[in-house]
C-alpha cells in the first residue's frame, strides 16, 4: 500500500521540486524521480503475493475521501494492472532520459508535466475505486495536452486540441456510466460503494440485461475513444505525429492502454450481458480498424505517421482478443497491451532519434540510414520484427493468442467458453497481420536500407516549418547530429530489447500471472454468451424496442 | 408574537456590512490618500466581521423566532457570500479607480470629491452583498423583494462607475432597463402567489399551498405565479430566457464589476429561487389521471419542473455554444457564467434531497473560480486598458509564469478536470441528478461539460501554449498586489479544497436543515 502511494507520489513531489529548481537540474531530477518511482513499484512487485492467484493486493482500504457517498482512496493491484503499471514505470525513465537532447526549450515545465503524467497514469492503474480511477484517467489529459501543444510539431496545437476534446468527451460517457452504476448500487442495496470489485459483482448480477446493454455501450463508447477504435481513432495519428518523441512513446506505450484496460477492468465485468450482446459489433469495428489502418499505413511516406496508424491496426487485434470472450484471447490481449507498449514505444523512440539528427520524417527525403547509423539500424530492425510478430520475440505470443482466441470463439461450447466470433474474424484480422508485415518491411526497406538519401544540409525539410519556435532545438548545426547512436541512446534501447526478447522466448510466467485474473473477469461470460446465442434475433428487437432506456452517458 | 429584537439580532452580519458601507462612503471622500487607501481594508474587515457576527448570533432560539422557510440557509450562505465577497473586494482593489488615483498621486489631477469614485464604489459593493445576505433570511415575499432590489440597484451604478467608457454607460443602461423589466415580472409572480394563497409570509404560504396540494392540487394562479417568479429571477441568474443582457453588460462593465456580477446576483437569485420554490415544495404533489385516480410523484409540480428543465437545459446549451463563438475574454466569461447557472439549476430541480446542497457546493467552487480567473485578469493591463482578448494573453507564461499557471488552473477547474475543485463539485451535481431521478439532465450536463471544454481550453492555450505576439508584449502587471493575492489564494483553494470535500459536502447540505417540504407539511396536517 505505502509502496504504491510512494510510486505515485514520488513523481508528484519531483514535479514540485522541478517547478522551483534550477532549469538545468530539471532533467536529472526527473530521471531520478522516475527511477525512484520505478524502484518503489519494483519492490512492491517483488513482494507481491498474488501473482498466481488473480486476487487484489492489498485489500482496498476503507479510507473515505468523500464519506457521504463512501468514495475511497482505495488502491491495489492484481497481476494485470501491476504488469501495466510496471510497463508505465519502466517506460517513463526511458522517456525522460530519451528527451535529454530533444528538449531544449522550457525544460522545467516539460519534465514537470511528464512527472505529473506519470503519476496520473500510475494512479489510474492502481485505483480500485472507480472515482479514483476516473480522476487518474482524466487528469492524464492535462499534462499530455501541454506536452503535445508546447513541444510538438508544426500542427501541435490542432493535434492537442483534437486529442483533448475527443478523449474528454469520451471520458464523460464513462463518468456518466459509473455514476449510474454507483447510484443503482445504492438504490438497491442502500449502501454506497465505488469499489471496482463490488460494483462489478453488483452490476453483472443485478442489473437487467437491457440496462447492461446500454451500460456496456456507454462504457465502450467512452473507452473506445481512448483505445482508439475505428471510427473514433482520427485523433490518434495526428496526436502521435505531432507529439514530441517521448510523448508518442508514452501515448502508445501506456496511455492507449488505459482504454483497453478500462474495457477489461470495468466494461467487461460490469455488463456481461451487454458485452456478449455487443461483442460482434465491437469485433466488426476492430476488424475494420485492423485492415483499414493497415492499408493506410501502406501508403504513408511519413515514418512516424506510419507507426501511428500501425498502432490503430494493432490495437484492433488486441481488442479482438478481448471480445473473443475466452481466456485464450483475453490472455493474449493483455499480453499484447504490454508488447505493443514495448515495441511501438521503442519504434517511436528510434524514429525520434533519427528525427533529432535529420529533422525529417518523410521517407521520400530520407532513407537508407543503415549506412550512416548501423547500430540504430540494428535496433530498428529488431523492434520492427518484434512489432510484426516474429516468433521468438514478444509480439508473436500476444498476437497469436489473440487470433487463436478469436478463431476458437465459436458457438461450440466444448472449450467451456462459447464465443460469437469464429474463424471468419480471425481470417480477416490475419490479413491485417500480413499487411502489417508488408508495410513494416516497406518501412525498413526504404527508411533503413536502400540507397542513402539525406536532406540537404541547409534544408530543414517541410516538417520543420514552425515559426521562430523550434521545439526540437534545431539551433545546433546538422553535422554534429549525423553520427550513430550515443551511449545514452543505446542504454535506453537495450533494456527494451532485452524485455522484448525475454517475453518472446519465455512468456510462460507472464501468461501464468495473467491467466487467473482473466478467468475471474470472464467468469460470467459463458452463461451470458449462451443466452445471447439463444436469443439473438429477439435481442436485436429488444434493443430496438426500448431506445428510451438511455445510457445516461 | 415575534420577538422583534431577536430578528434584528439575527441580522447582525447585514448590519455590520451596512454600517461599514456608510463608513466607506465617507472615507472614500477623504482628501488624504492614506485614508482613501484604507477603504478596501475596511471592506475586508467588515466582511470578516460579518462572518464572526454570523457565528455569534446564529443560535437555534433566534432562528426559531425568525420563522424562516429555510432556517439554516443563512448560516452557510451568508458565510459564503462574505468569503467570496472578500475575494471580490480584492479583485476590485486598486484597479477600479486606479487611473484617477495615479493622476492624483503624480499631481496631474487635483483631488475632486465629485470625480473620486472610491467611496461610492465600495459602499455599493458592500450594500449589494448586504442585499444578497438579506435574501437568505427573508421570512416573506416583501422582504425577499427588497433584498433582491438591494442586490441589483447598487450593481446598476457599479457598472457605470468607470465614467470614461461609453461602453460601460451603454452596459449600465441596458442592464438597468432589462433589470427593471425582470423585476416587474418577478413582482407580478409574487402578486399572483399572494392572490393564490392570501398571504405574503412564506411559511403560511407553504401551508396554504399544502392544503391546495392535498385537495384538488395547486391552483393555476399559484403555478403561474411561481413560473413568472422563476422567469423573473432568471435575470439574476443570467439564465435563459433572461440571459441576453449578460454578454453585453459583462463586456461593458469594468473587469472587477464583471467579476462581481458573475457571482453576487447569481447567489442572491438562486437563494430567492429556492425560497420561492420552497413554498411550492419538492414533494407531496399528485397528478390526476383520466380515471380520476391521484398518482403521487416526487419533485416540483410538473408544470414547474417542465419549465425549469427547459430553462436549465437551454441555459447550459446556449451558454456553452455562445462561449465557443466569442473572442472577447469578458464575453466568453459571460457565457461561461450563463452555462454555470444552467448546471446549478440542475441542483435546484432535484431539490432539498441533496440537490440544493450540491448547488451551494458548486456555488462555492464557482465563486472561487470566479475570483481566481478575474483576479488574474485584473492583475494585467495593456496600455492602461483592461486585457480583453485571447491574443493579449498569448505568451503570458513567458512574462508572468505565476499568473499563467493560476489562469490555467482556474480554466481547467471550470472545464472540469479532476481532481480540481470545480470538477468534483460538478460530479456531485451530476450525481445528485441521478439520485433525484433527473438522469436526462445529468446527461445534458455531461454533454455540456464537453462543449464547454472548447472555450475553456482557449484560456489554457493562450496563457501557456501560444507564443508571445505584438499585442501581448505590451501586457504588464498592474502595480497593486490585491488582485494577484486574490488569484493566488483562490487558485490554491482549487487545489486544497478537494481534500476537504467531504466536510464541504456536509456543510453545504446543512442549507436545507430544518426545511419542511410541502409533502411533510401535508402529512403533519393529516396527523392533526
Please describe what this structure looks like.
In chain A, 70% of the residues lie in helices and 1% in strands. Chain A is mainly alpha-helical and 553 residues long. Chain A has one domain (2-190, 203-457, 480-536). Chain A has a two-stranded antiparallel ribbon with strand order 1-2. In chain A, helix 3 (79-98) packs antiparallel against helix 4 (107-126) and helix 4 packs antiparallel against helix 5 (130-139). Chain A is globular. Chain B is mainly alpha-helical. Chain B has one domain (4-527). Helix content of chain B is 74%, strand content 3%. Chain B contains 26 helices and five strands. Chain B has helices at residues 4-10, 12-27, 33-36, 39-57, 60-66, 73-92, 98-105, 118-136, 141-160, 166-197, 202-214, 220-237, 245-252, 255-280, 302-324, 329-350, 355-378, 390-393, 396-399, 401-415, 421-435, 439-465, 470-473, 482-496, 501-509, 518-527; strands at residues 285-288, 294-297, 380-382, 385-386, 475-477. A three-stranded antiparallel β-sheet of chain B has the order 4-3-5. A two-stranded antiparallel sheet of chain B has the order 1-2. In chain B, a hairpin with a 2-residue loop joins strand 3 (380-382) and strand 4. In chain B, helix 10 runs antiparallel to helix 12 and helix 17 crosses helix 25 (501-509). Chain A binds chain B through residues 64-69, 131, 134-135, 138-139, 141-142, 145-146, 149-150, 157, 160-161, 164-165, 168-169, 172-173, 175-176, 179-180, 182-183, 186, 468-469, 550, 552-553, and chain B through 412, 417-419, 423, 427, 430-431, 434-435, 439-440, 442-443, 446-447, 449-450, 453-454, 457, 460-461, 464-467, 501-502, 505-506, 509.
C-alpha termini separation of chain B = 22 Å
Beta-strand percent range of chain A: under 5%
Number of domains of chain A: 1
Trace the largest sheet of chain B across and list its strands.
4-3-5
Mean pLDDT of chain B: 89
- The chain-level structural class of chain A is mainly alpha
- Give the overall average pLDDT of chain A: 85
Give helix and strand order of chain A, one letter per element, not per position.
HHEEHHHHHHHHHHHHHHHHHHH
Number of strands of chain A: 2
The largest sheet of chain A, given as strand count, sense and whether it forms a barrel, is: 2 strands, antiparallel
Output the number of helix runs of chain A.
21
Amino acid at each position: 500500500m505505502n509502496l504504491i502511494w510512494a510510486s505515485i507520489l514520488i513523481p508528484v513531489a519531483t514535479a514540485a521540486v522541478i517547478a522551483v529548481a534550477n532549469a538545468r537540474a530539471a532533467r536529472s531530477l526527473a530521471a531520478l524521480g522516475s527511477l525512484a518511482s520505478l524502484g518503489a513499484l519494483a519492490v512492491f512487485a517483488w513482494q507481491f503475493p498474488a501473482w498466481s492467484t488473480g486476487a487484489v493486493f492489498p485489500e482496498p482500504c476503507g479510507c473515505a475521501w468523500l464519506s457521504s457517498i463512501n468514495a475511497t482512496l482505495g488502491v491495489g493491484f492484481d497481476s494485470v494492472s501491476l504488469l501495466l503499471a510496471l510497463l508505465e514505470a519502466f517506460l517513463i525513465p526511458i522517456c525522460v532520459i530519451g528527451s535529454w537532447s530533444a528538449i531544449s526549450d522550457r525544460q522545467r515545465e516539460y519534465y514537470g508535466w511528464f512527472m505529473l503524467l506519470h503519476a496520473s497514469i500510475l494512479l489510474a492503474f492502481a485505483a480500485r475505486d472507480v472515482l479514483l480511477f476516473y480522476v487518474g484517467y482524466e487528469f492524464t489529459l492535462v499534462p499530455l495536452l501541454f506536452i503535445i501543444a508546447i513541444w510538438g510539431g508544426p500542427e501541435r496545437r490542432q493535434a492537442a486540441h483534437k486529442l483533448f476534446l475527443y478523449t474528454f468527451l469520451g471520458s464523460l460517457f464513462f463518468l456518466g456510466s459509473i455514476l449510474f452504476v454507483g447510484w443503482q448500487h445504492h438504490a438497491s442495496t442502500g449502501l454506497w460503494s465505488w469499489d471496482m470489485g463490488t460494483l462489478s459483482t453488483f452490476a453483472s448480477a443485478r442489473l437487467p440485461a437491457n440496462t447492461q446493454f446500454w451500460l456496456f455501450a456507454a462504457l465502450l463508447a467512452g473507452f473506445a475513444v481512448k483505445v482508439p477504435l475505428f471510427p473514433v481513432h482520427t485523433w490518434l495519428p495526428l496526436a502521435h505525429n505531432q507529439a514530441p518523441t517521448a510523448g508518442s512513446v508514452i501515448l502508445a506505450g501506456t496511455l492507449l492502454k488505459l482504454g483497453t484496460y478500462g474495457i477489461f477492468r470495468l466494461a467487461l465485468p460490469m455488463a456481461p450481458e451487454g458485452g456478449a450482446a455487443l461483442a460482434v459489433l465491437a469485433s466488426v469495428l476492430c476488424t475494420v480498424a485492423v485492415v483499414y489502418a493497415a492499408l493506410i499505413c501502406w501508403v504513408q511516406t511519413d515514418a512516424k505517421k506510419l507507426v501511428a496508424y500501425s498502432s490503430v491496426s494493432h490495437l484492433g487485434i488486441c481488442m479482438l482478443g478481448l471480445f473473443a470472450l475466452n481466456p485464450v484471447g483475453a490472455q493474449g490481449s493483455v499480453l499484447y497491451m504490454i508488447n505493443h507498449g514495448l515495441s511501438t514505444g521503442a519504434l517511436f523512440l528510434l524514429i525520434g532519434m533519427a528525427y533529432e539528427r535529420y529533422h525529417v520524417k518523410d521517407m521520400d527525403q530520407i532513407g537508407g540510414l543503415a549506412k550512416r547509423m548501423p547500430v540504430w539500424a540494428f535496433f530498428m530492425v529488431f523492434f520492427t520484427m518484434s512489432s510484426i510478430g516474429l516468433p521468438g520475440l514478444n509480439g508473436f505470443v500476444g498476437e497469436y493468442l489473440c487470433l487463436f482466441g478469436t478463431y476458437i470463439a465459436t458457438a461450440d461450447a466444448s472449450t467451456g467458453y462459447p464465443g460469437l466470433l469464429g474463424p471468419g474474424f480471425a481470417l480477416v484480422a490475419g490479413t491485417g497481420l500480413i499487411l502489417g508485415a508488408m508495410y513494416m518491411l516497406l518501412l525498413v526497406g526504404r527508411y533503413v536500407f536502400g540507397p542513402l538519401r539525406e536532406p540537404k544540409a541547409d534544408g530543414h525539410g517541410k516538417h520543420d516549418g514552425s515559426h521562430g519556435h523550434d521545439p526540437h532545438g534545431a539551433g545546433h548545426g546538422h553535422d554534429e547530429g549525423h553520427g550513430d547512436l550515443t551511449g545514452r541512446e543505446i542504454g535506453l534501447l537495450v533494456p527494451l530489447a532485452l524485455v522484448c526478447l525475454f517475453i518472446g522466448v519465455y512468456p510462460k510466467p507472464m501468461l501464468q500471472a495473467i491467466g487467473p485474473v482473466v478467468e475471474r473477469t470472464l467468469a460470467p461470460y459463458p452463461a451470458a454468451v449462451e443466452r445471447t446465442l439463444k436469443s439473438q434475433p429477439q435481442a436485436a428487437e429488444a434493443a430496438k424496442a426500448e431506445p428510451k432506456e438511455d445510457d445516461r452517458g | 408574537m415575534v420577538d422583534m429584537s431577536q430578528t434584528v439580532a439575527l441580522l447582525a452580519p447585514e448590519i455590520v456590512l451596512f454600517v461599514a458601507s456608510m463608513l466607506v462612503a465617507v472615507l472614500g471622500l477623504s482628501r488624504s490618500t492614506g485614508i482613501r487607501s484604507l477603504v478596501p481594508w475596511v471592506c475586508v474587515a467588515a466582511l470578516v466581521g460579518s462572518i464572526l457576527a454570523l457565528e455569534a448570533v446564529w443560535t437555534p432560539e433566534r432562528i426559531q423566532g425568525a420563522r424562516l422557510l429555510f432556517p439554516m440557509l443563512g448560516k452557510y450562505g451568508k458565510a459564503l457570500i462574505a468569503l467570496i465577497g472578500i475575494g471580490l473586494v480584492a479583485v476590485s482593489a486598486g484597479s477600479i479607480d486606479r487611473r484617477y488615483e495615479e493622476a492624483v498621486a503624480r499631481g496631474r489631477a487635483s483631488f475632486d470629491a465629485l470625480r473620486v469614485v472610491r467611496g461610492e464604489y465600495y459602499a455599493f459593493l458592500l450594500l449589494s452583498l448586504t442585499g444578497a445576505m438579506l435574501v437568505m433570511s427573508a421570512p416573506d415575499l416583501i422582504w425577499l423583494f427588497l433584498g433582491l432590489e438591494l442586490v441589483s440597484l447598487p450593481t446598476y451604478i457599479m457598472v457605470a462607475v468607470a465614467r470614461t467608457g461609453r461602453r460601460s454607460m451603454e452596459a449600465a443602461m441596458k442592464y438597468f432597463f432589462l433589470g427593471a423589466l425582470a423585476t416587474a415580472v418577478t413582482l407580478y409572480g409574487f402578486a399572483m402567489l399572494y392572490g393564490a394563497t392570501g398571504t405574503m409570509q412564506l411559511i403560511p404560504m407553504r401551508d396554504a399551498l399544502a392544503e391546495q396540494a392535498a385537495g384538488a392540487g395547486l391552483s393555476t394562479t399559484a403555478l403561474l405565479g411561481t413560473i413568472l417568479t422563476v422567469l423573473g429571477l432568471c435575470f439574476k441568474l443570467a439564465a435563459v430566457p433572461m440571459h441576453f443582457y449578460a454578454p453585453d453588460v459583462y463586456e461593458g462593465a469594468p473587469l472587477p464589476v464583471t467579476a462581481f456580477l458573475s457571482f453576487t446576483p447569481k447567489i442572491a437569485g438562486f437563494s430567492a429561487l429556492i425560497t420561492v420554490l420552497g413554498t411550492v415544495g419538492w414533494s407531496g404533489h399528485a397528478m390526476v389521471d383520466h380515471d380520476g385516480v391521484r398518482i403521487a410523484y416526487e419533485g416540483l409540480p410538473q408544470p414547474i419542473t417542465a419549465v425549469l428543465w427547459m430553462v436549465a437545459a437551454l441555459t447550459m446549451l446556449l451558454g456553452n455554444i455562445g462561449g465557443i463563438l466569442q473572442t472577447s475574454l469578458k464575453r466568453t466569461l459571460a457565457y461561461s457564467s450563463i452555462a454555470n447557472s444552467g448546471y446549478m439549476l440542475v441542483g435546484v430541480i432535484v431539490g432539498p434531497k441533496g440537490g440544493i446542497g450540491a448547488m451551494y457546493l458548486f456555488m462555492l467552487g464557482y465563486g472561487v473560480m470566479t475570483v481566481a480567473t478575474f483576479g488574474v485578469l485584473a492583475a494585467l493591463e495593456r496600455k492602461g486598458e483592461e486585457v480583453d482578448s485571447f491574443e493579449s494573453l498569448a505568451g503570458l507564461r513567458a512574462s508572468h509564469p505565476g499568473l499563467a499557471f493560476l489562469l490555467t488552473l482556474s480554466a481547467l477547474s471550470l472545464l472540469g478536470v479532476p481532481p480540481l475543485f470545480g470538477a468534483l463539485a460538478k460530479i456531485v451535481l451530476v450525481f445528485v441528478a441521478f439520485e433525484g431521478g433527473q438522469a436526462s439532465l445529468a446527461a445534458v450536463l455531461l454533454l455540456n461539460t464537453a462543449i464547454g471544454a472548447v472555450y475553456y481550453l482557449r484560456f489554457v492555450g493562450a496563457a501557456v501554449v501560444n507564443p508571445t505576439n505584438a499585442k501581448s508584449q505590451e501586457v504588464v502587471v498592474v502595480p497593486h498586489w490585491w488582485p494577484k493575492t486574490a488569484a493566488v489564494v483562490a487558485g490554491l483553494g482549487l487545489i486544497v479544497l478537494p481534500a476537504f470535500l467531504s466536510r464541504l459536502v456536509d456543510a453545504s447540505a446543512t442549507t436545507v436543515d430544518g426545511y419542511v417540504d410541502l409533502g411533510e407539511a401535508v402529512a403533519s396536517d393529516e396527523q392533526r
